[in-house]
Write a structure and sequence with these properties.
The structure is a single chain. The protein is an alpha/beta fold. The chain has 5 domains: 102 residues, PriA, 3(prime) DNA-binding domain (GIY-YIG endonuclease, 3-Layer(aba) Sandwich), CATH 3.40.1440.60; 57 residues; 179 residues, Rossmann fold; 181 residues, 3-Layer(aba) Sandwich (Rossmann fold); 85 residues, Alpha-Beta Plaits, CATH 3.30.70.600. The chain contains 19 helices and 30 strands. Helix 15 packs parallel to helix 16 and helix 16 packs antiparallel against helix 17. The longest helix is centred in the last third of the chain and has 18 residues.
Length: 710
C-alpha cells in the first residue's frame, strides 16, 4: 500500500512524499496518523494525508506508525488542504493549528493521567466488621477511589471474593464542577426567533439581538435539539474572559457532555479535552477561535457568539477567518451556522440584508426590560470645571449606587498607571529601546513597560537625556483609575486587565467574586465590555469613550459603536433599571450619538454610505502583503519590488494602495501593500508567485486576506 506523507522539514516548502506501508503496519497506517519515515540518512516525523495508487520512483518503507487511531479526521485533512490553498499557507502549519501541542508532529510520548478506583460488583452476605466498614463506603456510589480505602488486606480479600474489583479510570486535569440547572422556557419572542432559525433556508443565520434579549437561551435550545437528534455542536466565544459564565451555564444544562478548548488551558488540560471530543465522550464543545477545529463528527450546529469581534480572525499563519472555516465544516456536515451579536459586523449585516444570510432579530430585552438610559458627557467642559478624570455626574452616580448597594462597571481601554512620561524641561518622552513607542508606567510594580515587545525597566528619577528631575506622568490607565476610586469612595474595587489576570484562573475568580457581590466596582479594559451578565450592575461608565476613533483604520467608527453599545448593555439586565455614562471629547460623532440611542440600523446606514464612497468592505475585499525586516533598507527594497510586480501583473480592476511602513516594533519594520479587489482568480495566481519567489532570508513575508489591522 502506498501513502502520501507530509514530512516535517523546514528546508522544504510544501513537499509530500510517497512511501510504502509494510504489511505489518497496514492496519495502523490510516489517513491522519503520524508516522516516522526515512528521509535520506535521517528519520523524520510525518503525517499520512492521502492514499496513492502508483509512484514514479522507488519508494521507501514507513518505519513506524505513532498513533493507534488517526489524530486528524478525513474531514480535517480535507479542510487543511482547502485552508492551504485559500490562505496561501503551508499545509503543515494548517494541520499544526488544528492540534493540541501534545500532538505536534515531533511529540511521541503522551502524558495521560490515571486514577485507580474500586467498583462494587455485588452485595456480600454476613460481612465481617472490617469488610462492612469498607462496603459502607459504597452506600451512595458504586465506585470509590482506591486511596480512600486504608485496610488493604481486607480490600484484597473482597477483591479475591469478586465482591469488589479494581478499575483504572483516566483523570481529566480540567475541573468539571458545575451546578445542575434546567433549560429556561423561551419567551414568545425567543421562541419565534428559535423557530425562524430552525426553518432558515441559508446555511448561515444572523441573530441580531439587543443586549439582554436572551440569545444564550436560544443557543441552548438549538443545541438541545441537535443533541437529541444524535448530532454535535460547537459554541465559539471571542475571548477567554467570556467563557466563565457561559461555561457555567452550559455545563449546568448539559453537564458532563461539554468539553472546553481555549488557550489558557495547560497543555495537559487541552490534550484531555481534545481526547474527550475525539473519543466521542461529549457532544458539545465550547471555546475560543481554535475550537472550530474540534475533532467532532456529525456536527449539527456551529454558533459564533459576538460574531463581530476581531479575535475571530487569526493573525498568525495560517491567517484564517473563523466564518470561512465554519462554512467549510457546515457544508461537510450539512450543519447550520448561527452568528449572534447585538452589533453585527457591517459585512455580516449586509449579507443578511441581501439574502445571503437569513436574518432574525430580537429587538427587546427579556420581559420587555428597558435598555439602559445613556448619557454623553463632554469632557472638554468637565476639564474646565476641574474634573479631568471622573465627571461630576459620574461621581454622583457612583456614590448613589454605592448607597443603594448596587454594583458599578467602569471601562477604560488602557492598562497601566499613565500612558507615557515626558520631561518638562527638554520634552523627552521615555520610549522603548526596541520600539518607536512610549513606555507605559505601571505604579504597582514601579516599572515602565512596553505593551508591544514586553520590555520593562525601573522608572528613573531623572530624565535620561537632560538629567532633569521634572518627569511628568501623562494619560491615565486602569491603575490610575483604581487609585482615584479608592481615594474618592469607600468602595471595594477590583481591577480586571491583562496585568491582574495573568495568573491561571484569575479571570474566573474575579468574575465569580464580583457576581457574588464581594466587590462594588469592577474596573477593566475591553475584556469586561461584552458577554458578562451581572444581576446587580445598574451603572456602567466608559472613560475616554472616543479613544478607538483615533486609530487610523476604516473600521474605527464601527469598533467604537460596538464597544459603547456592548458595554452599555451590561447595565440593568435584571430587575433594576440601568444607566450608562460615556465620557468623551467627541460627543457629536455619529458612532457615539447612535450608541447613545442604541440605534444599530441608523449607524449601519450611515457607515455603509461612507464605506461605499471610499470603496471599503463590504463593497470590496482586501488583502494585505507585508514584508517584515530588522533592516529598513532591505525591507523597503523588497516591498518596492513587489509593488512594481503587482502594477505589472494586475489589471485596472485591482486597486493597490501603498506601500506604507509602520513604526518600529521589537526592532522590526513592517512594510505593507493593500489590494482592494472583487475578483480573486488573477489575484491568487499573482500572490502565489510572490510567495514562491520571496527567498531573502533577511525578511519575513505575510499575505493576509481580510486583515483586521491595517
Amino acid at each position: 500500500m502506498l501513502v502520501g506523507v507530509l514530512v516535517e522539514i523546514k528546508s522544504l516548502k510544501e513537499k509530500i512524499f510517497t512511501y510504502n506501508v509494510p504489511s505489518k503496519l497496514i492496519e495502523k497506517a490510516k489517513l491522519g496518523t503520524r508516522v516516522i519515515v526515512p528521509f535520506g540518512s535521517r528519520k523524520l516525523n510525518g503525517l499520512i494525508i492521502s492514499y496513492e495508487k502508483e509512484c514514479e520512483y522507488v519508494t521507501k518503507d514507513i518505519i513506524e506508525v505513532l498513533d493507534d487511531e488517526p489524530i486528524l479526521t478525513e474531514e480535517l485533512i480535507s479542510l487543511g488542504k482547502t485552508m492551504s490553498e485559500k490562505y496561501i499557507s503551508s499545509l503543515m502549519i494548517c494541520y499544526q493549528s488544528m492540534l493540541p501541542s501534545a500532538l505536534k508532529f515531533n511529540k511521541k510520548s503522551l502524558n495521560i493521567k490515571y486514577d485507580k478506583y474500586v467498583e462494587k460488583v455485588f452485595d456480600l452476605e454476613n460481612p465481617s466488621v472490617g469488610e462492612k466498614n469498607i462496603l459502607n463506603l459504597f452506600n451512595d456510589t458504586d465506585m470509590v477511589k482506591l486511596s480512600l480505602i486504608k485496610n488493604k488486606t481486607i480490600l484484597k480479600r473482597l477483591i479475591d471474593k469478586g465482591v469488589l474489583k479494581e478499575v483504572v479510570k483516566e483523570r481529566y486535569r480540567l475541573s468539571s464542577t458545575y451546578d445542575k440547572c434546567d433549560l429556561k422556557t423561551l419567551t414568545p419572542n425567543q421562541k419565534k426567533a428559535y423557530e425562524s432559525i430552525m426553518n432558515a433556508k441559508n446555511i448561515v443565520t444572523l441573530l441580531r439581538g439587543v443586549t439582554g434579549s436572551g440569545k444564550t437561551e436560544i443557543y441552548m435550545h438549538l443545541i438541545k435539539n441537535v443533541i437529541n437528534n444524535g448530532k454535535t455542536a460547537i459554541v465559539l466565544v471571542p475571548e477567554i474572559s467570556l467563557t466563565t459564565q457561559l461555561i457555567d451555564r452550559f455545563k449546568g444544562v448539559f453537564q458532563d457532555n461539554v468539553a472546553v478548548l481555549h488557550s489558557s488551558l495547560s497543555d495537559g488540560e487541552r490534550y484531555d479535552e481534545w481526547r474527550k471530543i475525539k473519543d466521542k465522550k461529549v457532544s458539545l464543545v465550547i471555546g475560543t477561535r481554535s475550537a472550530i477545529f474540534a475533532p467532532l463528527n456529525n456536527i449539527g450546529i456551529i454558533i459564533i457568539d459576538e460574531e463581530h469581534e476581531d479575535t475571530y480572525k487569526q493573525e498568525n499563519n495560517p491567517r484564517y477567518r473563523l466564518i470561512d472555516i465554519a462554512l467549510e465544516r457546515a457544508k461537510y456536515n450539512n450543519a447550520k451556522i448561527v452568528l449572534g451579536s447585538a452589533t453585527p459586523s457591517l459585512e455580516s449585516y449586509a449579507k443578511a440584508k441581501v439574502g445571503r444570510y437569513d436574518l432574525v432579530e430580537l429587538l427587546e430585552r427579556v420581559n420587555n426590560k428597558a435598555l439602559p438610559l445613556v448619557y454623553i458627557i463632554d469632557m472638554k467642559d468637565e476639564i474646565k470645571k476641574g474634573s479631568p478624570i471622573l465627571s461630576k455626574k459620574a461621581s454622583d452616580l457612583i456614590l448613589d449606587r454605592l448607597n443603594k448597594k448596587e454594583q458599578i462597571m467602569i471601562l477604560i481601554n488602557r492598562r497601566g498607571y499613565s500612558n507615557y512620561i515626558i520631561c518638562n524641561e527638554c520634552g523627552e518622552v521615555l520610549k522603548c529601546p526596541n520600539c518607536d513607542i512610549s513606555l507605559t508606567y505601571h505604579k504597582t510594580s514601579g516599572t515602565l513597560r512596553c505593551h508591544y515587545c514586553g520590555y520593562a525597566t525601573i522608572k528613573p528619577n531623572l530624565c535620561p537625556k537632560c538629567s532633569s528631575k521634572y518627569l511628568m506622568l501623562k494619560g491615565i490607565g486602569t491603575e490610575k483609575i483604581e487609585e482615584v476610586l479608592n481615594e474618592k469612595f469607600d468602595a471595594r474595587v477590583v481591577r480586571m486587565d491583562r496585568d491582574s489576570t495573568s495568573k491561571k484562573g484569575a479571570h474566573e475568580k474575579i468574575i465569580r467574586d464580583f457576581n457574588d457581590y464581594k466587590y462594588d466596582i469592577l474596573l477593566g479594559t475591553q475584556m469586561i465590555s461584552k458577554g458578562l451578565d451581572f444581576k446587580n450592575v445598574t451603572l456602567v461608565i466608559v472613560l475616554n469613550g472616543d479613544s478607538s476613533l483615533n486609530v487610523p483604520d476604516y473600521r474605527s467608527a464601527e469598533r467604537t459603536f460596538n464597544l459603547l453599545t456592548q458595554v452599555s448593555g451590561r447595565a440593568g439586565r435584571k430587575e433594576k433599571e440601568g444607566i450608562a455614562l460615556i465620557q468623551t471629547y467627541n460627543p457629536n460623532h455619529y458612532s457615539i450619538v447612535f450608541a447613545k440611542e442604541h440605534d444599530y440600523k441608523s449607524f449601519y446606514n450611515k457607515e455603509l454610505k461612507i464605506r461605499k464612497q471610499l470603496n471599503y468592505p463590504p463593497f470590496c475585499n482586501i488583502v494585505a502583503i507585508r514584508i517584515i525586516s530588522t533592516d529598513y533598507e532591505i525591507g523597503n527594497k523588497e516591498i518596492q519590488k513587489i509593488h512594481k510586480y503587482l502594477n505589472t501583473n494586475l489589471n485596472s480592476k485591482y486597486v493597490v494602495l501603498g506601500p506604507s511602513v509602520s513604526l518600529k516594533i521589537n526592532n522590526t519594520y513592517k512594510f505593507q501593500l493593500i489590494i482592494k479587489y472583487k475578483e480573486k482568480e488573477l489575484l491568487y495566481e499573482v500572490l502565489k508567485d510572490i510567495d514562491k519567489n520571496i527567498k531573502n532570508k533577511n525578511i519575513k513575508a505575510e499575505i493576509d486576506f481580510s486583515p483586521v489591522k491595517l
